[in-house]
Amino acid sequence: MAKRKSLKTDPCPVARALDAIGERWSLLIVRDAFDGMRRFGEFQKSLGVAKNILADRLHTLVEEGIFSIAPASDGTAYQEYVLTPKGLGLFPVVVGLRQWSEAQLFDAGEAHSILLERDTHAPVRRMEVLAPDGRVLQAGDTLVLKVGPAMESGA
User: Fold this and answer.
1) Which of 22, 5, 25 is nearest to 13 (CA)?
2) Closest CA to 38 of 3, 105, 94, 87
3) Which of 128, 129, 104, 101 is nearest to 115 (CA)?
4) Could you list the mean pLDDT of each consecutive 10-residue stretch along the chain, which spans 155 residues?
5) Contacts of 101 (CB under 8 A, 6+ apart)
6) Largest CA distance in the chain
7) pTM of the entire structure?
8) CA 57 vs CA 20, 92, 95, 107: distances in Å
9) CA-CA distances (angstroms) from residue 111 to 18, 27, 108?
């Protein structure tokens, strides 16, 4: 199998993010960590992924600084995978994917899990992209300023 091209130095922030967490098992592991899972066996049972693939993805997530490895919190000989601040920063990404999926990939009335605020049990509001003045922005209201040779040299 051909090794995929690294995007670690790509000038596009989306490309760099996908290089770090774009493989589907990686985001599902992060999702499960947000649900409280910390051990290899918990991830494996939840996902049903082959152990070698899970081990590889966890290794990559640790290398990327998304997880750290810690001794088991219950004092056993196991180790746990703990989200780092960098990993915790993926929460809005996971919520955004969830909300997009709910809106685009489920039929009206089709059962699915619901994200609730822990204290009140109220459903979490839909995420929005806001302008500095608070207006809701759509894709057509934004532009991406591309980095190019002229900009890099200060011209």
Assistant:
1) 22
2) 87
3) 101
4) 74 89 94 97 97 96 97 90 98 96 94 95 96 97 84 50
5) none
6) 59
7) 0.86
8) 10, 21, 21, 32
9) 29, 22, 9
